[in-house]
């Protein structure tokens, strides 16, 4: 089952000619989940040829303009196609007011259900077949949350050679063994599932953290992420500025990734003060703490495979 993340934008505060505002689309088979949506989000969706009309849910970190102003356009665009499935929008308090006010002021024509749910405490906000998405608190200048998409554990690997050796022929009995049942072999002996099925295997995890002070509580929430998107808005020389504005430095993001035993850190949400060439300084600082760090760039695609 494919699990991919598409960086629609990686900038903070204001869009630049070469850098859209922070937004990430996660695709898990037929499900599409959008994390934040500043102005211009549609541009990258179109350039990546993503099926925006199939977006199941939008997860908003907070209601600052650079994270939400692209959402009304997406909602109106979705009304131009046949859509029966509801669009779920999750976010902290004020997101419902923002969506409702936008619909009224813009006189939106919406021909599908829109379900807005406000997050007031850490919780699982969305669930599907074999996965869930949870929200957890961050510390910014207004209420802000991070998100983690986490898959449930998978059954262990089935060993067909072992099953044949134990006298279980290929067929329905193999399915029963894979489902955890015991079966009777051709010689009358009982074969238990654990004899031919290995230990359960962990699912995959993608976490999204932006616009926050560094706090140790983030580490536990993103623990074991295969892919961690985390803001690295400033360099270390501006750590005081980052703290004042309640943001993180690239090195602080790297320390989170290291402590959380993440697989890969994708820095995101850069200050507009840095040109693309100047972002290398942020990467250098982060890599000194967590070597498997990359700079997110607009329209970059990450594939998250299962662990071996």
Description:
The protein contains eleven helices and 16 strands. The model has no long low-confidence stretch (mean pLDDT 93). The chain folds into two domains: 3-154 and 201-303, Metallo-beta-lactamase, Chain A (4-Layer Sandwich), CATH 3.60.15.10; 160-196, no CATH class. It is globular, with a radius of gyration of 22 Å. With 308 residues, the chain is an alpha/beta fold. 25% of the residues lie in helices and 26% in strands.
Task: Tell me the layout of helices and strands.
Elements: E1 3-9, E2 23-28, E3 31-35, H1 41-47, E4 55-59, H2 65-68, H3 71-78, E5 87-91, H4 95-105, E6 114-118, E7 123-128, E8 131-138, E9 144-151, H5 160-165, H6 172-178, E10 183-184, E11 190-191, H7 193-196, E12 205-209, H8 217-221, E13 227-231, H9 239-245, H10 250-259, E14 264-268, H11 279-287, E15 293-295, E16 301-303
Parallel strand pairs: 3-4, 4-5, 5-6, 12-13, 13-14, 14-15
Antiparallel strand pairs: 1-2, 1-16, 2-3, 7-8, 8-9, 9-12, 10-11
Helix pairs in contact: 10-11
Overall pLDDT level: 93
CATH H-level superfamily title of the largest domain: Ribonuclease Z/Hydroxyacylglutathione hydrolase-like
Give the helix proportion (percent range).
Answer: 25-40%
CATH structural fold name of the largest domain:
Metallo-beta-lactamase, Chain A
Brief sketch in words of this structure:
The protein has about 300 residues and is an alpha/beta fold.
Question: What features would you highlight for this structure?
Answer:
308 residues, 2 domains, 7-stranded mixed sheet, 16 strands
